[in-house]
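Thread: "does anyone have the structure for this chain?"

Original post by V.I.:
We have the sequence but no experimental structure in hand. Need at least a predicted one for the grant figures.
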Amino acid sequence: MSHAEGVPPCRPGSERWAWIELLGFDIGASDLGVGALLARMGFVPDGISLLLLNADVVHTHGSRTPDSVFPPDVCSYYGHPGNEERGLQPWTPRLLRRLVETLQAHGTRVYISVFDLFRSDEWIGRHPELLQRRRNGQQVRSLCPWKRLADGTFYEDVFIPRLALLLRDYGFDGFHCADGFAHQRLPISEGDFSDDMVGQFVATTGVALPAELTGPCDADPARLERRARWLWAERRREWIGFMSARITRFMRKLATAVHGEHKHLVCNSAWTKDPFEALYRYGVDYRANADAGIDAYIVEAAAGASELDGYEKVSGRRALHPFAAAVLLDHACVPLTPLLFLNGIKDTTEEWCLLRHTPPLLEAEIHTMSHLFGVSRDGLPRRVVAGPVACLADGLSAEEWRRLCAHWDLAAAFAPRRILGATLVWSDAAFRAQLDDYIATRRWSMHRLLHHLLERGAPIHSIVRVEHVDRAVGPLVVLNAHLFPPDELARVLADPTRPVIAITAAATLPGNPNLTFSDLGDREGLCCAVYGLQTTAPRPIAEEPAGPDPAADPRTAEEPSGGHAMFYCDLPYRRVSAGFIAACADVLTQTADGVRVLTERDAVRVTALEDERGVRRLLIGNDAHWYNKPQIDVGRPIRRLTIGTPFPAVSGPVTGSTFSVRVPGRGMVIVDVE
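Reply from O.Q.:
Generated one for you, tokens below.
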């Protein structure tokens, strides 16, 4: 699949994009308010995605007169009545075309985005067969793009040609494939289990249903649920494979049409999920879809918004660590596809605003996502994200934009030559093996291990694909080493002087580790092996469990369902002791070069980088809700400290190689150490 011609959707370095409703513009101004918006922003975005929400803007394209008014849920996100600047406005096709032209005249690329959701239903209302159907038979007001119309036509064969025509007629630079089209809204364990989708599954895979579950079930919710439960319990692997191939088929058709118009296709990640959970929970294969023609991914990494809504209560201590771990793994999975990160600022419809209510959460999100690094064949660390996507970008003042841009500038300013800590190793083969391993055992995925290690302060902020592992500098960490092929493990362990920390389920480990210890909470569970390092044994491992213990039979462990099916609810995993994770994190910290948190270790996390001058940049994060003032040892005498963030104004006392600094709750302070 050839990608779009001409300027790529993301260039290396720090890009700045914006996702914005039409409420961000003014139909009463001669330039539709574009000049005023850009003046407040203080920059011209590299890309602007117009959130038009209702896909009927595509379905009805060509049937509207130039001055007919769009439905309210095209004119604003879900048709809400207004924002800080203005009320709902009557946008028309003529005005929308002018807006695209005006934005482009200022030098930005303009994309259209729509959701599976809708409030008005002028076209969708005539096609209820396209709505999602849960495993309990309930229909949801959400489009399922993989289904067929009542006459047997695939929806994609209606939507995609009309989208291509719309891109051409309005002059958009591309399509931002967002929620509900980049992935379906429901997890694939929850739906769509309609006669249509199950029929497609049977025709594609040849799987035979039990006699009592054959035939139509849509009108019989109890029978439909029995069929759904049987499919998930008995043919789960086939169902996941079918859904991922089905979505990739959609993406390939979409990319072909968009590129045929010489436009770009940018695509959201499957909610906030890493490559494994994207595949298992949503049937989204990031690598296959990238190969099908996606030009860039927008990773849904709005950790601050999730924390503000309390979602961190479900998965780990806070959302920041799982979201950062996902970004790191996404890059390794699709190393040639640029990543932008969704920087959650405010949303009038969803009723949250980090910029005004919890600035520390916003700042921690920006700096955390901007300081994750990949190591390629030249051995240099490079940021895995091309830059932020401001979400949403309407209704902000010039001063608010100034503050936001100051943090974006700071996040992109430091060019490290070395990341102080361990580099995570990615293997395509291990990733492919993870799905069957999880289905059979419910062992923790690489992502779950990674984000729990990050929560314990493990210094893992860079990743390398196994084929380039010899180019990485410093210690390596291998998660779920039992899934790696023997030749890849041999490559990782080739240098006997390099520390390698392997967490694995294997009873026998390759080579001769210097140190091994097991999870005392699950004698048949995980163990840790350390190579190339002589170290004292870790502190005693408590048997305190981390997370619920699922049913003994992995096949009967229930997936999140109903209201708990949303992306922020955990999958069922087997028990892993918190003490084991803490001991692994301690060993990883011992291998890090030179930076130690001496006090407040339960809450304070540090990312340490070093540039070619030897200057060390420390990103000091605080997971607690209150101020902390940790003591930090940088491992060498300190000549000078420079604080890069607006807070605090001064650091605490410096003594030799140690200093202290006050860090706001859930926030981050950046300090350069010479």
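V.I.: this helps a lot. The mean pLDDT is 94.
O.Q.: and The CA atoms of residues 26 and 33 lie 5 Å apart.
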